[in-house]
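User: Hi! I have a protein structure encoded as tokens and I'd like to know what sequence might fold into it. I'm fairly new to this, so please keep things simple.
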């Protein structure tokens, strides 16, 4: 310490706070004589041995906090603090807390990360206690009967991360805490849960029920066969202060119990028996408060919402993020058209291994229905045909012409291993025009001797229709999609569709012949990172129509260009052309044997 404190100074103290102190008990061998002290806080570094009489001279203290106390037992003088109202002993090494039962005026008790093994009967004497925090007491296994039910004024109870072997009668005691508003608890099994266990309307909670449920909502989701999904939106989910429910249940009776969680904000569902078709069965009010939804490893869910049923209100009006993984029978996220405000705050869509899903949403106008959408990631969905499908409320609207579908907020788009996908946004009008063109061609050819009626007219449609616009898109990752053409030759001249695109990855697109039509290259002036790999039929990066003279292509901001495993790539662009890369810092070319402008392996 910098200096010694005189007895006169200590006698006048009302508050003492010592942060990150490295001291030993010899400094105060008899404890502190601070009769006016009301607040004492000490964060300990190293080993500090508390004398048995340490608290004798501070019996007026109301708030006491020791962080990282390494004493194996609490000093007996702690029981003399009859005026103490707040006690925090987080990260303590002690295991016996019997002495704390003497502190009858205690209102707040925090023992986070302590080594206690049992919540002893003496704690039941703290009838004024309003907050009890036992979070992450990994060795806590036993709660003595009638302790919890004795804490009649308890408002907040935190018990997540404990190793408690819950018994039915102990859980029953929670039902008698009439003033409880906040609960954090992990229950490994669902068979011991009492009836009407969650009949209370809790204001704040983090509750996990079922084996492994405590791990839900994290950075990874593990499938039944060991496969996993990386949840990219994890860092964006501000789940700490949310009402959270994590469920992995085999009990059918729980469908009614879950109705009590009408105000849940973060919902993670794994296996859940009793759901026959759609998630709406769990909340007839449409999950009006839900912000984050994770559903995984559930074979029973066919759809999330069935709008064809008589639903008189909006569903998921506040939902910001949805994450679906390994839902092997999911056919639709939403049957029918949802109401205007349903999903209207959705920002993030992450879907993986949902093999029966044919599209993510069917909407009359996806950009208008999902105005806040910022991120889409879809992977490993074997039967997905499109991300969005155009659907009208009635047949009369099928002839409606939509000039532009503009996703104003979409910044990140990742589509990987979708073998059947044909387009980002299907448009019934475009398809009918193609059909009509084919029919007209057949009619015109009827005068010849050859019948072409059964011939398939090869019309290569771009993956991104020219009507679909992404003015804020920053990153685009296309991996193993079944498309011969990414972009339309002509983008709308009234707006810069890809004016903010900075990163483009094209990987494993086996049918792709080129990446950019020459007419749209100028839309990618912000591009900084370009990687093209494992496209076995790719012949050129930029394709252009035959024109006289030399064409110049500018990539003014590209700093990194990677070309890998492109066996048919022969040139950047056929025909006379120049390309400018003033900011290029790194160029990697690997196993592009026919490329005549670089060697087969080159790096700068």
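Assistant: Happy to help. Inverse folding works backwards from shape to sequence: for each of the 604 positions I chose a residue that suits the local structure. Here it is:
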């Amino acid at each position: 310490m910098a200096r010694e404190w005189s007895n006169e100074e200590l006698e006048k103290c009302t508050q003492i706070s010592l942060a990150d102190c490295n001291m030993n008990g010899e400094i105060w061998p008899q404890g502190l004589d601070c009769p006016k002290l009301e607040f004492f806080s000490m964060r300990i570094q190293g080993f500090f041995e508390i004398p048995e009489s340490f608290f004798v001279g501070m019996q007026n203290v109301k708030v006491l906090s020791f962080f990282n106390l390494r004493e194996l037992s609490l000093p007996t003088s702690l029981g003399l603090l009859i005026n103490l109202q707040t006690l925090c002993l987080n990260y303590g090494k002690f295991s016996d807390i019997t002495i704390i039962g003497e502190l009858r005026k205690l209102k707040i008790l925090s023992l986070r990360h302590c080594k206690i093994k049992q919540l002893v009967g003496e704690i039941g004497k703290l009838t004024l206690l309003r907050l009890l925090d036992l979070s992450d007491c990994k060795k806590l296994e036993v709660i003595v009967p009638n302790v919890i039910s004795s804490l009649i004024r308890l408002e907040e109870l935190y018990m997540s991360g404990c190793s408690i072997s819950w018994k039915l009668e102990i859980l029953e005691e929670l039902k008698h805490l009439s003033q409880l508003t906040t609960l954090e608890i992990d229950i490994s099994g669902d068979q011991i849960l009492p009836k009407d266990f969650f009949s209370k309307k809790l204001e704040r909670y983090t509750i996990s029920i079922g084996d492994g449920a405590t791990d839900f909502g994290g950075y990874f989701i593990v499938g039944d066969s060991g496969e996993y999904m990386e949840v990219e939106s994890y860092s964006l989910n501000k789940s700490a202060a949310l009402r959270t429910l994590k469920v992995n249940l085999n009990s059918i009776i729980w469908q009614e119990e879950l109705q009590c969680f009408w105000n849940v904000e973060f919902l993670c569902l794994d296996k859940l028996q009793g759901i026959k078709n759609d998630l709406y069965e769990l909340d007839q009010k449409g999950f009006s408060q839900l912000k984050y939804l994770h559903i995984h490893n559930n074979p029973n869910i066919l759809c999330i919402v069935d709008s064809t049923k008589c639903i008189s209100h909006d569903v998921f009006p506040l939902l910001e993020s949805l994450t679906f993984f390994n839902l092997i029978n999911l056919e639709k996220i939403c049957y029918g058209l949802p109401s205007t405000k349903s999903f209207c705050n959705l920002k993030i869509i992450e879907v993986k291994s949902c093999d029966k899903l044919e599209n993510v949403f069917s909407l009359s106008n996806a950009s208008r229905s999902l105005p806040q959408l910022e991120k889409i990631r879809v992977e490993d969905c074997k039967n997905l045909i499109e991300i969005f499908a155009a659907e009208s409320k009635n047949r009369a609207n099928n002839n409606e012409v939509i000039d532009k579908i503009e996703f104003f907020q979409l910044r990140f788009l990742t589509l990987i291993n979708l073998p059947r996908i044909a387009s980002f946004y299907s448009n019934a009008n475009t398809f009918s025009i193609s059909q009509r063109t084919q029919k007209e061609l057949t009619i015109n050819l009827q005068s010849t001797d050859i019948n072409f009626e059964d011939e398939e007219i090869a019309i290569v449609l771009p993956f991104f229709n020219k009507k679909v616009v992404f003015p804020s898109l920053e990153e685009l990752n296309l991996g193993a999609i079944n498309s011969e053409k990414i972009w339309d030759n002509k983008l709308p001249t009234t707006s810069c569709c890809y004016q903010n695109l900075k990163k483009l990855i094209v990987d494993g697109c086996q049918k792709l012949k080129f990446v950019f039509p020459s007419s749209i290259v100028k839309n990618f002036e912000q591009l900084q990172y370009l990687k093209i790999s494992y496209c076995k039929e790719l012949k050129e990066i930029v394709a252009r129509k035959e024109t006289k003279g030399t064409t110049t292509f500018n990539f003014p901001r590209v700093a990194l260009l990677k070309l890998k495993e492109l066996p048919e790539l022969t040139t950047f662009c056929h025909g006379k052309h120049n390309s400018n890369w003033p900011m290029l810092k790194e160029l990697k070319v690997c196993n592009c044997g026919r490329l005549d402008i670089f060697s087969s392996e080159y790096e700068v």
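A useful reference point when you look it over: Residues 428-444 form the longest helix (17 residues). Feel free to ask if any position seems puzzling.
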